[in-house]
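Our preliminary data section would be incomplete without showing what the modeling component actually yields. Below, a chain of 172 amino acids is followed by its predicted structure, encoded as tokens that our downstream tools consume directly.
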Amino acid sequence: MPVKRIAVDGPESTGKSELAVLLAEEFHAGVVPEAARIYLQQLGRTYIKDDLLEIAKLQCRYEDDAALKHNIIFCDTTLLVIKIWSEYKFGNCDPWIEQEYQNRNYDLSLLTNIDLPWQDDPMREHPFERQILFDCYHREMMRKKINYEIITGVGEMRNSRAIEFCKKIINI
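Predicted structure:
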């Protein structure tokens, strides 16, 4: 049976990490952590464009490792996030990231909306540009014809919507 892969993507401070963990617990599945957060916490300097390639490779490794251990995985961000971030911040994306992004597919992508309040965090950069970034994700998902659902609302409403979308894909 092939591994069911569900991506949780979206702008900063939209509850991706919390949602990925909640869904993994709900479905007794694996969760793929956000590689950027782990990498940047250990970096000890301001990141540069070349760091995004290293983060992308780490993200792929985390995802591939989780897929070996679980038949359902929830990915707390994917290469889509790194691609959009690279294009937004640096004006382009490394060809390796672009190619690997094109080759990776998910059974479902959950696009987290910006309707949650901004949470300050030293890793976050753009509290006032979340709508711009959300629109970038949305356009790209439509362009690539990704199977996605937009996750809106707060608290239990948000969580139960995400669970219902996932149930359809996981066939529960």
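The mean pLDDT is 95. Residues 49-69 form the longest helix (21 residues). Preliminary results of this kind motivate Aim 1 of the renewal.
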